[in-house]
Amino acid sequence: MSLWLLLAVNSITLGGLLFLLSAGFSLIFGLMRIPNLTHGSFFMLGAYLATSLIAHGVAFWTAAVVAGIGVAVFGGIVERLILRRLAGAELAQVLVTLGLSFMVADVCLMVWTGDPIRIDTPAGLRGTTAVMGLGFPTYRLAIGAIAIVFAAGLWLLLDRTRLGAMIRAGVDDPAMARVAGIRVSRLFTIVFCLGAWLAGFAGVMGGPILSVYPGLDAEMLPLALVVVILGGSGSLVGSLVGSFIVGFLYNFGQAMFPEMAYVVLFLPMLIVLVVRPQGLFGRQPA
Amino acid sequence: MKRGALALALAALATVPLWVPGTFYVNIASQILLYAILALGVNVLAGYAGLVSLGHAGLFGIAAYTGAKMLTAGGGHWAGPAAALAATVLAAAVFAVLALRGTGLGFVMITVALGQIVWGVAYRWISLTNGDNGISIPGRPSPFGLSLAAPKTFYWATLLVFLLALASMAVFVASPFGAALRGTRDQPRRMSALGYHVWMIRFVAFLFSGLWTGVAGLLYLYYHQFVSPQAVALTASAEALLMVISGGTGTLLGPVVGAGLVVVVKNVASAYIERWNFVLGAIFVLIVVFMPDGLVPGLARLARRATAGWRPQSAVAVAAPREGTGR
Amino acid sequence: MSALAVRGLYKSFGGLQVTSAVSLAVEPGERRLIIGPNGAGKTTLFNLMTGELRPDRGTISLFDNDITRVPGRRRAHLGMARTYQIITLFPRDTLLRNVTLSLLGLTPLRWNPLVRLDAQTALVARAREVLARVGLGHLAERPLAQTSYGERRRAEIAMALAQNPRVLLLDEPFAGLSLEERRDVLALVTGIPRDVTIVMIEHDMDVALDFAERITVLHFGEVVVEGTRAEVVAHPRTREIYLGE
After folding, report:
1. Chain A neighbors of B105, CB-CB under 8 A
2. What are the DSSP calls for A245-277, one per residue?
3. Which domains does chain C carry?
4. Model pTM?
């Protein structure tokens, strides 16, 4: 019984991390039609940057935010200097993000070497919390809560602010959005940076649980893809639901079919593809 | 003139082991040829169908692993490869049905996911694939009594398969089906209105692509006499695509040139630079941004300008084909 | 028996009703013109007829055969051909290859991966004939990229004629053409024999009126006026719609 509960908590944790990771991916793909294959690298880069900041005495949460900013700045540079030059050539943009992911991975290898680096759980969230008489790792619960907070925040942003309205317009109909006077190119940069920040921040969040190591980017990227294909691109609800489905599948899959776990989490994606190609909540097909 | 150049090239290829300085280079030549077959296979989709796959390492790996499993289980050098190719074509069918649910970018994403599934099996399903330790095979075959264990004989066997692949591509490209496939790349809407079954055409092309990718995977297995999850990683799919786009997708020889380029740079670079992935990524970015046509069309254009004077040319961006369908 | 008939056709996108209760019947050999302001749903109607879009409600029939559920690619084999408002020719090929592809679409040869397409002399010869018919015979070997817009418009029609259709749908065939080019294309179209039924969408009335026998006027996705040319031209509603533009 307690095993199932532990798995459930771990699932919520992974789901939360995946939401932070894939929300950005989903927005970028939904708005800019770019499957950003550098997204896994953003996650990993954020985590690595945080390890250096923490090693220099920066507090965990500050490091998380600042590392995210670092990744966002990198993302902004990439968007303005490279992706914008290829505006309209969607395939070229995908390939460029792929090439960049390899470059980032190798730079990280050079700078931080190949040994996995642990990030310590932030003080105050260590240990366990009692919920319904059972002890759960506090930090893991916290990640779930943080993800919900961000989900709510993003929903407010999209639903209640002008920026959000512009993003939604751009996702629904980019051509019309331009005609309506929305500065689409500036919007693209903002969304790309936001997505990058979320990914970097998620990387740091995941640090205490996953550690940081070469290959983390290649492991996280397909998960983001699965979430977005499953949940539907450009849909916040889709990313949320998809993330938790994947989180649960991965953890329970690991427990029940350890050798097949990685494959198990792709299965619902495949099913959704066959039955409903636009994803559970998406509007356009992938 | 063209026939002469072709004959010369053929002669040069056939005599490689005689004029290259040492077995290291013969082996490089074998690698170039087997990767050229892979690149030709990827190009069927990327170049002629306008469908970019970043999951072909999955098919490549299925061929290599199936071959390895069959050979280590005692199957002969007829049963093993046959099973491997059958498995690969079957997998290609599954890949196609799933990936064709998406168009354009969706297709790319789904192939990434599919390739990763195969990688996940190779890496994690240890009881099946031995995980990171990989599978070794007892040795190379000896078809008709000729052992392929030596680099020279392996090279000639690979050359034979390569020429077969190239010939089949040439026939395919010139055929009605090949023209129809290119039609679905350029104007899928109209093709449907003209009576073509666009999905089925793409599906069959995927099988054809998968077949040659499987052949390349088998050659890879025989070359290294070993297969590990590295052969199935996303970087492997990316390299295959890089071979295609660096050489140029619109030509028959483009992928071959691209394969040569990538293999040489990779082998030379890793002697001097530890960070091959960085170089790979940088080359990718540079080519996509500055040379979307690839090298072969670019150089051909330069050659034409130099010899025939200036003529108005329409530059056709080949590496970034756009879907003609609406959303 | 009508050549092409639609009954009670409805289509909406999201919240927008693009086609509303459209019914019309075109007689064999008829020259029907469909007109209406921008956004009236003319091209959508064509897309429904050719099977590119599926109607929400209603039926479509071709020579009294219900083709509502028949996939678009099969309608070409049943004798339906169309041209496009925006030129959708094959940009990397010659005019000859473009028309050859059109002819190929209706033959089993299109599945053949072994023979040489260029060696199919009968097919290629027919392609040349079709090109000659539209006055492009001398440009057969010209790559599409090196042809003029007027030539491409005629090539569009050649593509459709190559299919030997029983029903030909022309979507704004005069768009963007000079006065002289319009007269050429009109001559081409009026020269098509009566065993082909023609439905034309046109936005520009000057040239199209000469062609039309019967006219259907669409407005906001509905049929508002229909009748002979004389009737429609005289109809007050027609004037309202077009003078209001």
Report:
1. 29, 33-35, 90-91, 94, 286
2. HHHHHHHHHHHH-TTTHHHHTTHHHHHHHHH-T
3. 1-79+165-245 (3.40.50.300), 88-164 (no CATH)
4. 0.88
